[in-house]
Amino acid sequence: MKKFFILILVLFSTLSCAQNTPAEDSPAFNPENVLIDVRSPQEFEAGHIKNAVNIPLEKLTADIKNNVTDKEKTIVLYCRTGRRSAIAENLLKEMGYKSVINAGTHEDLKALEDKGN
Fold first, then answer.
1. Residues 25, 78, 89, CA angle at the centre, nearest 5°?
2. pLDDT at 117
3. 3-state secondary structure of 55
4. 69-108, pLDDT tens digit by residue?
5. Based on C-alpha coordinates, what's the Rg of the chain?
6. What pLDDT score was predicted for residue 115?
7. Which of 27, 80, 91, 110 has its CA 20 to 30 A from that of 51?
């Protein structure tokens, strides 16, 4: 059953990645939102979006409660390719978080961030 659930998450995340392309008015840059980088600590240290919090995907369900206590708060996720952030989006929605956005890739957001400066 667990393997089936993971397969469904991966298939759904593949579909979600294509639909979640950041725009210039990306919610990632809204200071009211919580921006979470679900990449590894090593990837995060190599470069990340300003004001992002690093919670690796494999630690997300355990650590999210320490970082976001209000389940109504908008959470914006990103990673290297958009796959992990899509999986994270599904996990957080299953945990009851109401407003979760997959902003896509670090590279796309970084380009937007650089463009805004």
1. 100
2. 63
3. coil
4. 999 999 999 999 999 999 999 999 999 999 999 999 999 9
5. 13
6. 85
7. 91
The question of whether 79 is a catalytic residue gets the answer yes
Listed by start position, the domains of the chain span: 2-116
pTM: 0.78
Q: Which two tokens stand for residue 94?
A: 């299953």
DSSP sequence for 60-84: HHHHHHHH---TTSEEEEEESSSHH
CATH 3.40.250.10 for domain 2-116: yes
- Residue 77 contacts residue 38 (beta carbons within 8 Å): yes
The answer to whether residues 77 and 91 touch, using CB atoms and an 8 Å cutoff, is no
Q: Do 74 and 101 contact (CB within 8 A), yes or no?
A: yes
For residue 77, give the nearest of 101, 47, 56 by alpha carbon: 101
Determine which one of 38, 52, 77, 79 is catalytic.
79
**HSE-up of residue 14 (Cα within 13 Å, Cβ side):** 5
Q: How many CA atoms lie within 13 A of 102 on its CB side?
A: 28
